[in-house]
Amino acid sequence: MPKHGKKYLEATKQIDKTKVYPVTEAIELVKNVASAKFDETVEAAFRLGVDPKRADQQIRGAVVLPHGTGKVQRVLVFARGEKAKEAEAAGADYVGDADMLAKIQGGWFEFDVIVATPDMMGEVGKLGRVLGPKGLMPNPKTGTVTFDVTKAVNEIKAGKIEYRVEKGGIIHAPIGKVSFDVQKLTENLAALTDALNRAKPAAAKGIYMKSVSISSTMGPGVRVDVK
């Protein structure tokens, strides 16, 4: 077991581990116990009644949080010709094709999200070994493989996040910063919860949303009632 610091242990004393808190109360608690010197990210963890090993129970998608994440995402777009110009006009941080592929092969990763037009995926796919493990591979399910690069860039800049079920049926996703007010964090959590409810696989049996907890980067988890 990892050793926790004094601040973390102090924070856990304020949280009743046996209790499932109403959303507003849970968010207030997370904000109150956050003690780091930086603006911590607030994360939500959903434990779902799915088996990620089964292809028909994979959950992957994206949602635009109404108030963003508090972090401005750096967007790299792989496109050519008119689509490259469109990406630049939309505010993409980097746009290119072979030049950018070569930079990534050389170890450059000064970006957070990649968008690619479908005709570029043959080339981008060759970087699968490098991009895959970092979770950076563009994917049609998350809207990052598209000819509508304007929409893709705008949504990412507006606070679009991706989610993907991990082993154990867990989904982790950011819902904002500790500095956000309670209402903004509540509305972001609601948008994510709605998206996950809509993404429920037909093959999932029994209770779908088993438990939800929220925490700050350095803080303990607080169980929350999202019903």
Automatic annotation (TrEMBL):
Similarity-based family: Belongs to the universal ribosomal protein uL1 family.
Pfam families recorded: Ribosomal_L1
CDD domains, sorted: Ribosomal_L1
Lineage: Bacteria, Bacillati, Bacillota, Bacilli, Bacillales
GO cellular component, one term: large ribosomal subunit
Record's function text: Protein L1 is also a translational repressor protein, it controls the translation of the L11 operon by binding to its mRNA. Binds directly to 23S rRNA. The L1 stalk is quite mobile in the ribosome, and is involved in E site tRNA release.
NCBIfam families: rplA_bact
Database matches in SUPFAM superfamilies: Ribosomal protein L1
Subunit and partners: Part of the 50S ribosomal subunit.
Single GO MF annotation: tRNA binding
BP-aspect Gene Ontology terms: regulation of translation; translation
Name of encoding gene: rplA
Protein name as annotated: Large ribosomal subunit protein uL1
Keywords, alphabetical: Repressor, Ribonucleoprotein, Ribosomal protein, RNA-binding, rRNA-binding, Translation regulation, tRNA-binding
